[in-house]
Design brief:
By secondary structure, this protein is α+β, with helices and mostly antiparallel strands. The chain is built from 13 helices and twelve strands. A hairpin with a 2-residue loop joins strand 10 (275-277) and strand 11 (280-285). The longest helix is centred in the middle third of the chain and has 17 residues, at 116-132. The termini are far apart.
Amino acid sequence: MMRLLKLLCAASFAVAAVCQPAQARGPGISPEAWGAYKAKFLDASGRIVDDGNGNISHSEGQGYGLLLAYLANNPADFEQIWYFTRTELLLRDDGLAAWRWDPAVTPHVTDSNNASDGDLLIAYALALAGSAWNKTDYMEAAAKMAQALLSHVVISSNGHTLLLPGVSGFNSPDRKDGPVINPSYWVYEAIPVMALLAPSNAWQKLSDDGLQLLQAMQFGPRKLPADWVSLNRMPEPAAGFDAEFGYNSLRIPLYLVRAGVSDKALLSRLRKGMTAEEGTPATIDLSSGKPKALLSDPGYRIVNDVVACVTEGTKLPESSQHFEPSLYYPSTLHLLGLAFVGEKHPECL
C-alpha cells in the first residue's frame, strides 16, 4: 500500500502533499494554536466536542480533528482521535461511519446513517498521516473508507457524478425530489487522494461536476447555492429544508481555495453574495437575499479573508491572524484557513 501510494503521488502534482514528510511541508498549525483548540474541544476519550450543538460528536468533527492534528504534526493526538472514531463510529457494515454520537443518551449513536463529508475527511486525514508518518494501518483504513464511499455514495444521475450526503434518505425512492445533495460536502482537496486510494475515473468527474454545479447554482438575488439542493430536474433548493445559504455552505469557498481552485469569478461571486456588511459573512435567505444571521466570529470572517487573499492579494486582518477558540465550528474553519494561508500564501500574513 505505501509503495503504491508513493508511486502514484510521484506522478500527480495535485496530491504531492500526501507524500511530503512533516518537515518538508509548510508551517501547518502551531503547537500553541493546536493546544488551545484541543484544550477546548478534544475530550480525553478522543472525541471532538461540538459545543455549539449540545456537546455531541459527529463524523465531521472527528474528520476535522484528525486533519488538524495532522496539520499540527501531533501523532499522539491523531491516534487518540482515531481511536474514538474507529471504536465508536465505525460501526456500520459498509465501512462508513455513523454520523452522530450523543454523550447524554445510551446507546450513544443516535443516528447510524453516515455523513459523506465526515467520511471523506476521515479517509483524507488518515491518508495524509499514514504517508507522512509511515503508518500502514492508517493507509489501509483510508483505502477501505475510500472504496466504501465510491461504492455507496458516489453515484451517477442525469449525466452527473454526485456525492450523496448519506447512504439513506437522499436519493429516490427515499425522496420524490431525489437526488438531493449538499454542495458543501464536496471536500475538493480530498478527492484526488480518494482516487489514489480507490482508483476510478468517477473521482475526477465528481470534482468536475461539483464545480460545474456550483457554477449553475445561483439562487436568488445574491446568486448563491443552497445548503440542500434537489437535482431531480433542474437544480433548486430542496423541499423540507430552509432555502438558505447557511452554516454548511459557508465553508465552500474555503474548500475551494484549499484545493487550489483559482476561479476568480466563482470565488468572488460567493464572497460577495455571502457578505452582509463590512466584510462580515452571514447566512442568507435565498429568496429575498436578506441576511438571516451575521457571523462576526473571526473563524467565520476568515473565509472571506482567505478568498480576498487568493483573489486580490489582500493581507489577513489582525483579527483573523490571531487564533483564540470560540465555538467548535468557527474555530475549526479558523485553523484550516490559517494553515492554508501560512503554507500557500504567507505574503498575506
